[in-house]
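Entry type: protein chain
Record version: 2
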Amino acid sequence: MKVVVTGTRGIPDILGGIETHCEELLPRIAALGVDITVTRRKGYANDKATEWNGVHLVDIDAPRSKTLEAIVHTFKSIVYAKKHGADIVHIHAVGPALLVPLVKLLGMKAVFTHHGPDYDREKWGRFARFMLRLGERMGTRFADKVIVISSVIRDILVKKYGRNDCHLIYNGAPTAHFYTDDSYLEELGIEPKKYVIGMWRFVPEKNLEHLIRAFDMAFPKDSEGNRRDGMKLVLAGDADFKDGYYHRLERLTREQEVILPGFVRGEKLQTLLTNARCFVLPSSHEGLSIALLEAMSYRLPVIVSDIPANKVVELGDESYFHLGNVEELAEKLKSNAENEFHEVSYDMTRYDWDKIATATAEVYRSLNIEH
């Protein structure tokens, strides 16, 4: 069985939720005996490798364009899959799913993973939203198998399209590795349990400006410019495109002296998660946030917006604030800092990547590919 995966920028060490999903998932599927290839967008690949942890890597050109990049790359990836004898094309996300019918026309099986209603993202204009909705429709109606990462998405597809046979396979949480070496923290000018962390792509729907404003309210500066309780705000991540939103955010973070370590992975990220006071996710749109699950795996207190995708994780009331309510978020941050720090034990059973890989491989095998 040969599987080609597309709809992602690529792996490894490429910023994005779907990218992290594929980085964790695909090597585990390869270890189960599946011949699996991921097509990477050439502009994002950080190396010239052709194989990584059992996964074949193929770099394919695509225009660096917010609106054209994903669909052009997906088209080229499907052509590549047909040319190289793929049995299954696994497409991630609703935009690339617009081309699911092409997969079927070329005689291959199509698997579509729905990571969330991307048409709700604030960055898209009217035409792009229409095309993303159409992609959702094409993927849901014509894919041989549909995978959803949360019950919220499953319910959307049942209600809108009557697709009752979706496979609910959650996102997972990477294994936590705790680091107590403070050298990286010293490099950033922060102290253990004296900083709040957020980690995502810098896009409008993440509402970073809400967190920055709430942090400033919760920990105002004194006459010497020092924040109450010595707290700092750390935002780990970056933007795909340096557009107007990015430049406005850049000015705001500079004015508020936010710590911006950039896109970090490995020991640096593990160090930040080990020593943080709490994790915050103020988004207006999510599928099932891997960043949130990762923070939970480090037993961090978390403060998240009360959108359905975050509510499905079933945190305590103290972890939620009403979407867009900056004052309430500030109160949550203040309360967290005033109380003694305690680790939180979460039930992470259903977020096990090994189980998720086994379930996904079973979806492939259920297509009864014969050679």
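Comment: The first helix runs from residue 17 to 31.
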